[in-house]
Amino acid sequence: MNILIFLIILIVLVISHEFGHFIVAKKSGIRVDEFSFGFPPKLFGIKRGETTYNFNAIPFGGYVKIYGENPDEENINGPDKDRSFVNKPKSIQAFVLVAGVLMNLIVAWFLLSVGFMSGLPTSVSSAPSGAVVSDQALTITSVVADSPAQKAELKTGDKISKMVSGLDMLENPSDTNSVVDFVKNHGNKEINITYIRANETKDVIVTPKVSEISGVPVIGISMDLIGKLSLPIHKAMWEGMKLTWHVTEGTAVGFYTLIHDVVVGKGSMDSLTGPIGIVGVVGDAREFGFVYLLSFTALISVNLAVINLIPFPALDGGRLLFLLIEKIKGSRIKPVVANWANTIGFGILMLLMAVITFHDIVKLF
Predict the structure, then answer these.
(1) Domain contains 89
(2) 256 with 124: CB under 8 angstroms?
(3) Do both 71 and 137 map to the same domain?
(4) Residue 145: is it exposed, middle or buried by C-beta count within 10 angstroms (0-12/13-18/19+)?
(5) C-alpha gyration radius of the chain
């Protein structure tokens, strides 16, 4: 079921992204020869007008084949040159390239807005002024790797309802400090934690360990008071737009940090997750509820938008960089140079995907 849900999410996001390129190209008078979900080999397709719509065997992506996007003699000077991407003004070319990213951001905005209308899990401290946040509970927001909490299989989204150690008990904690103090006061003694996950109450025993940084006993979790924020449609759309912006900003900073760490030799494969890893996260989101799944889908959509803006050959950002270079130098980059750069870039991206997927498989064992 998780794989099926992941494929549905992927289909929706990829088709949305490619539809952005497709519709802007069509409206700009550019010929579109192919609209494909996935990469070859081709499973089936249908032709409508001048465009062939394909469903391919490798589902991790998709593409729109726009006439003149990879320039050659025919689409530069041939009989259909007026409908060629490469012969359109730079502003139109840029709009076609950016349209896919914009569609991903619009999809994220829509999903988050629906989430706010349905009751989106939100930090009480960050809720809009005057908004009512229901079902408030102290919730785990992150779990430290190799910590007592992770070994006990506590997860992000678990709601802490009770902690017991010996004769001491903490019920329905409403702030982080009460939990921190409870753990600190019981040193290395076993703590029985009762938590709620997907409306099911569970118990787990955790033994704190002394932090090498703070020197006090910890179990390795971050927490926040989380509740359901339900808004009317107009406020939901506004808050959805604001959250989309903040998520996009945070994602961009995260990718910059990742690339910087790789350049200076501090990068780690542990910070990357491929399709197999995402399937597992989809399962966790599905377990917590439909609204969590909506939020996770919005997060993936934002990630696709940001990744595609990276100025690397074969990505939309790489093609935008080529446009900028052409604008500055006042002439086209040689078609053979641009085409080879995009081909090599695509190959590197596929190799990176294969490496990340292999790493995901290794982590399962």
Answers:
(1) yes
(2) no
(3) no
(4) exposed
(5) 24
pLDDT in tens, 199-239: 889 999 999 998 878 888 999 999 999 998 989 999 999 99
Cα separation, 352 vs 38, whole angstroms = 17
Question: DSSP readout, 23-41?
Answer: HHHHHTT--EEEEEEEEEE
Q: Locate tokens 């802007």: which residue? A: 24
Please answer whether residues 190 and 206 qualify as being in contact, where contact means their C-beta atoms are separated by less than 8 angstroms: yes
Q: For residue 249, is it within any domain?
A: no
Residues 83 and 145 in one domain: no
Query: At which residue do the structure tokens 């499973």 appear?
Result: 43
DSSP state of 268: -
- How many domains would you assign to the chain? 2
Residue 357 is assigned to a structural domain of this protein: yes
Q: What is the pLDDT of residue 271?
A: 61
| Nearest alpha carbon to residue 296 among 311, 309, 315, 277 | 277
DSSP secondary structure code for residue 147 in this structure: S
Cα dist. 358→5, 274, 276, 349 in Å? Answer: 21, 9, 9, 14
Q: How far is CA 232 from the centre of its chain?
A: 26
Q: Are residues 7 and 97 in the same domain?
A: yes
Q: Which residues pair with 229 in a beta bridge?
A: 120, 133
Q: Are residues 10 and 37 in the same domain?
A: yes
Task: Identify which of 139, 111, 58, 49 has the alpha carbon closest to the alpha carbon of residue 244.
Answer: 111
255 backbone dihedrals φ, ψ, rounded to 5°: -65, -40
Q: Could you write out the three-class secondary structure of 230-253?
A: CCCHHHHHHHHHHHHHHHHHHHHH
Q: Which domain holds residue 62?
A: 2-115+298-363
How many whole angstroms separate alpha carbon 223 and alpha carbon 139? Answer: 5
Q: Is the peptide bond before 208 cis (omega within 30 degrees of 0)?
A: no
Structure tokens at 207: 């033994």
Q: Tell whether 171 and 208 lie within a shared domain.
A: yes
Using one digit for the tens of pLDDT, what is the confidence trace for 42-75? Answer: 999 999 999 999 999 887 778 899 999 888 889 9
Contact partners, residue 347, CB within 8 Å, separation at least 6: none
pLDDT of residue 268: 63
**pTM (2 d.p.):** 0.83
Q: Check: CB of residue 247 under 8 Å from CB of residue 241.
A: no
User: What pLDDT is recorded for position 154?
Assistant: 93
Residues 6+ apart with CB under 8 A from 58: 38, 39, 40, 41
Report yes or no on 315 lying in a domain: yes
